[in-house]
Amino acid sequence: MAIDNPGNNAKSARTDRLIADAVRHRQTREAGYREQALKIYPWICGRCSREFTHQNLRELTVHHRDHNHDNNPSDGSNWELLCLYCHDNEHSRQLDAEAARQAGINSSGSANRPLATAQPFANLKDLLKGRQQ
Question: In sequence order, which ranges of 3-133 are alpha helices (DSSP H)?
């Protein structure tokens, strides 16, 4: 039979309170900027131009242009409304660009690494001339 340690219960209760506070804070922050964005912007996806009504409004998301969810100016300059699909696509593009950057590939698709300098066939023409004579 396990004996309850009062110190562990206090730590657990404190952790539970911290988690609940963090979740509540996030929900309040999200509800705030989402509601503001829905009042400012027309209910249309900024990428595919799909229109939304009260019935499908849950599929319209607020995208932070600078990807900073704490940057929520009241004029909405860091937001755009995107449908779920376009929002997922935008974040996938961002992840792909970051992976390419880490792999050393620039935005034009070429490698940022130095090009190969070896020229194994540089002297081939001279070698072939010697055989023909």
Answer: 6-40, 84-103, 124-132
